[in-house]
Specification:
Blueprint lengths: L1 E5 L3 H13 L4 E5 L11 E4 L1 H10 L1 H8 L3 E3 L2 E5 L2 E5 L4 E5 H15 L2 E3 L7 H7 L2 E4 L6 H4 L2 H4 L1 E15 L6 E8 L2 E9 L5 E8 H6 L15 H10 L1 H4 L4 E2 L6 E8 L3 E2 L2 E3 L14 H18 L3 H31 L9 H9 L7 H7 L1 H14 L13 E3 L2 E3 L3 E3 L14 H12 L4 E8 L16 H17 L3 E7 L10 H4 L12 E2 L13 E2 L2 H21 L3 E6 L4 H6 L14 H18 L6 E6 L10 H13 L4 E5 L17 H15 L2 E5 L5 H10 L4 E4 L1 H5 L3 H8 L29 E6 L11 E6 L7
Parallel strand pairs: 1-2, 1-9, 2-8, 5-11, 9-17, 20-21, 20-29, 21-22, 22-25, 23-24, 25-26, 26-27, 27-28, 28-29
Antiparallel strand pairs: 3-7, 4-7, 5-6, 10-13, 10-14, 10-15, 11-12, 12-13, 16-17, 18-19, 30-31
Helix pairs in contact: 1-4, 1-11, 2-3, 2-11, 11-12, 14-15, 16-17, 17-19, 19-21, 21-22, 22-23
Length: 791
């Protein structure tokens, strides 16, 4: 096979060496525009997973790397005059220049042709003259840019500025230095890569960077460092450098750009490494990802009979791994962009927050690796809440307004579409009763509609008449008599999302018959095929407000402990808040202040109708997930407005305001919105914040609470899978205290079963070498417990 590799960085050189080992007959040429001794940056970090794959693929090269590694097991965090050490991590790093030297020699020994200081021929010409063209030419890939319609690239330029430097201070562990300066928060990521040097990355938000005077109009050409900024950094971080030097190497201020491509290959052209994808340096190394790509690509090419099949297999195999890494990297980089929100946290809690920022490290991970630190985190959390108990965070009690909750787990509102004429029946008694007996501190109803026209479907429950109230009272009484849980009422009006089929018959699809007219702030349908709602007028707004108040009074009479006003998910009040659905020209449309006006009127009416001693909370969609819609910054102001009107809590969901939304789904993907609202507005007022959305494990719940990202966690689908999830979580954690009381009838089953939960396993690369007896080369994922990344 005749192969062209564009880019002589670690990814391109490693791929060339692997392919030449697998079959010396391959004709492989590498073009690198820089000289062989040119290298930018300092150290690169590897995980045990990647090193295992390299060792299996090429023991000789792996051995050469290992002799040059700097290894460490601790992370040190320096914050507000304190240093905290967290052990048990396990990492290896080496100098980038040394790595490139090893790869260059390996390629030369194997017979790979490498042209240094030579731009590659145009990619379209290479495609015609070679069987395979590999674009390994980095974040600004010319190969990728030559075929925009093929790869469909998106570039996300982020808000922090950073500069990559080196120092002759050899750190003994990974270092996070957090500095709260007069201009704002700055941070340093530092780690050793040899016996003589360490990487020293300085990072700060662009606003801080400007206030500190780093903003200059001067442009520095490639290879030229911004020495005035380097000197300033040397002065600012003199304490962290401890008398040591700081070195530049093409060092200038950069903004991280996340690269994503809809496709990584086209015909005989394929991308690897930063050309295909980038992930923020705070969770690891782009070099690591590039070399893993090269392992996978080489194996797939060797295993499959033709290039197209091989490239498809490569992308199929690598894309899920890379996208998972990018999700973690996105969470990590956004945490550092918003680090200023957390500088008031107690130091131990701040350190835990930092370590768990990407959700790849959790409380259980840290306890396994450093139980002493985990104990300090538990103690700091209990102290911050005025508690003495050593219970897991999720089982610590919480006071929501004047309502005492035994623990911090909520069964999230979930529509069941199983009522008749709005009346809840035996199904709802069993559904909500079983969840209450399952250990949660608070059980929420589905959205209970305030009128027949306010239903989503014909199967929705309501509170517009006394028959419905009395049926709800039966359910509430069961919860109070048979459990120690509290039960909350969610009130809402469907707005433009009404008159639709039951979920299992076609979610959000209009009814085939028996429809009712829908209303909204503007005559805009929810999506293609949805009916056009009638624009609601002032008189009808007043009528619906009165319906909300009447439903709240009936809910109070039924005995509910709490009421939640549903201002999320594109229903009537949510659609008033969103500029996607609300395009009115009167005082209820336009600015956010105007869009808030009607939801606040309804809130005030419900608050007046609801008993003063019982709490009232609001569910909001923190982002519309649509360009031009509400963002998390709007959500902070929306939360601020409801809090100023007396909300005791903000329940933070997202989206569902229009069909064209593009949510970024993932584990705990909505928690960052709750985190922002809590730190920017709610914590100062003592208002509770509820996190919701793909929170599926008790470890995640504990991690969210301990980091201070929310006060309570609402969990939905997991409780459908296991109505006793909360009690089972207590058993798994060997907790039998007041926050997890088993019903007396079930106590015989309250002991933890003999089988133990196994830790989740992460994949490991395994590439059998070409010199194996059967010459059968594979790249397969096999279980391997990998130390958590720097996230």
């Amino acid at each position: 096979m005749k192969i062209a590799v564009v880019g002589g960085g670690p990814g391109g050189l490693y791929f060339a060496a692997l392919m030449k080992q697998l079959d010396p007959r391959h004709e492989i040429t590498v073009w690198e525009r820089n000289a062989p001794d040119d290298t930018f940056g300092f150290g690169v970090v590897f995980s045990d997973e990647t090193l295992g794959g390299i060792e299996n693929a090429d023991p000789e090269f792996a051995d050469a790397m290992a002799r040059r590694f700097a290894r460490w097991t601790d992370i040190d965090i320096h914050y507000r005059g304190e240093s905290h050490t967290v052990g048990g991590q396990g990492f290896a790093a080496m100098g980038r220049k040394e790595l490139l030297g090893l790869l260059q020699r390996r390629c030369r020994d194997l017979g790979v042709v490498v042209h240094f200081s030579t731009p590659a021929p145009a990619a379209d010409r290479l495609r015609e003259s070679h069987d395979l063209v590999v674009g390994a030419d980095g974040v600004n890939s010319l190969v990728r840019q030559s075929f925009p319609d093929s790869f469909r690239t998106t570039l996300d330029r982020r808000h922090n500025r950073y500069m990559w430097l080196g120092t002759d201070r050899v750190f003994e562990a990974f270092q996070f230095f957090i500095r709260d300066t007069e201009w704002g928060t700055m941070q340093v990521h530092g780690y050793p890569y040899s016996g003589t040097g360490s990487t020293f990355i300085v990072e700060m938000h662009e606003d801080v960077w400007r206030r500190a005077g780093f903003d200059t109009a001067e442009e520095f050409p490639p290879g030229v460092s911004d020495m005035s900024a380097v000197e300033r950094i040397r002065e600012l971080f003199a304490e962290e450098l401890a008398g040591h030097q700081v070195f530049a190497n093409n060092s200038k201020w950069l903004s991280f750009t996340t690269v994503r491509n809809e496709r990584w290959h086209d015909g005989n052209l394929v991308l690897v490494g930063d050309a295909a994808h980038t992930a923020h340096f705070s969770i690891g190394s782009g070099t690591k990802l590039a070399m893993e790509d090269s392992l996978a690509l080489a194996a797939c090419l060797h295993e499959h009979p033709d290039v197209e099949t091989a490239l498809t297999a490569y992308e199929t195999e690598r894309r899920p791994v890379v996208e998972s890494t990018q999700r973690a990297a996105q969470a990590s980089l956004e945490w550092f962009e918003n680090i200023g929100m957390y500088v008031g946290q107690e130091p131990t809690r701040f350190c835990f927050n930092l370590l768990t920022r990407s959700r790849r490290i959790t409380y259980d991970n840290l306890r396994t690796r450093d139980s002493d630190f985990a104990d300090r985190v538990d103690a700091a959390f209990a102290a911050s809440q005025g508690l003495e108990s050593t219970a897991p965070a999720m089982f610590q009690p919480f006071r929501l307004g004047q309502l005492e909750l035994k623990n911090r787990v909520i069964v999230s509102p979930m529509d069941m579409y199983s009522a008749v004429d709005g009346v809840p029946g035996d199904f709802h008694l069993v559904h909500l009763g079983s969840k209450a007996m399952g250990g949660a501190g608070l059980v929420m109803t589905e959205m209970v509609c305030v009128s027949p026209e306010g239903r989503i479907t014909p199967g929705c429950t309501g509170l517009w008449n006394d028959e419905q109230r009395d049926s709800w009272a039966r359910i509430v009484s069961f919860v109070h008599e048979r459990s120690t849980a509290r039960i909350g009422l969610q009130l809402g009006h469907s707005g433009r999302k009404g008159s639709t089929r039951l979920m299992w018959e076609g979610m959000d699809d209009p009814l085939p018959e028996g429809n009712w007219e829908t209303v909204g702030p503007s005559p805009l349908p929810y999506g293609p095929g949805s009916p056009v709602p009638r624009e609601i007028g002032r008189d009808e707004m007043d009528r619906i407000t009165a319906e909300f108040a009447a439903a709240a009074r009936r809910g109070a009479e039924a005995g509910f402990d709490l009421v939640e006003l549903h201002c999320a998910h594109g229903y009537l009040l949510s659609s008033f808040l969103s500029p996607i659905a609300n395009q009115r020209a009167d005082s209820y449309g336009g600015s956010l202040e105007n869009r808030l006006r009607y939801p606040l009127e309804v809130f005030d009416a419900v608050r007046a109708a609801w008993p003063a001693e019982r709490p009232m909370i609001v569910r909001v969609s923190a982002t519309d997930w649509i360009s031009g819609g509400n963002t998390e910054h709007d959500a902070v102001e929306i939360a601020r407005a409801f809090i100023s009107h007396g909300a005791d809590g903000i329940d933070v969901s997202s989206g569902q305001v229009a069909r064209e939304e593009r949510p970024a789904y993932g584990r705990s993907y909505q928690t960052p919105f709750a985190d922002r609202i809590r730190h920017e507005v709610a914590a100062a007022t003592g208002t509770a914040v509820i996190a919701v959305g793909a929170i599926a494990s008790y470890d995640d719940v504990n991690s969210i609470l301990l980091a201070g990202r929310a006060d309570l966690c609402a969990i939905g689908r997991t409780h459908l899978y296991d109505p006793h999830w909360t009690l089972h979580a207590a058993a798994e954690q060997d907790y039998r205290g007041a926050g997890a009381q088993w019903p007396v009838q079930f106590q015989a089953g309250s002991r933890k079963p003999p089988t133990s939960r196994t830790d989740a396993v992460r994949p490991r690369l395994s590439l059998l070498r070409a010199d194996a007896p059967d010459r059968n080369v594979h790249l397969r994922w096999t279980p391997h417990r990998e130390p958590a990344a720097l996230s």
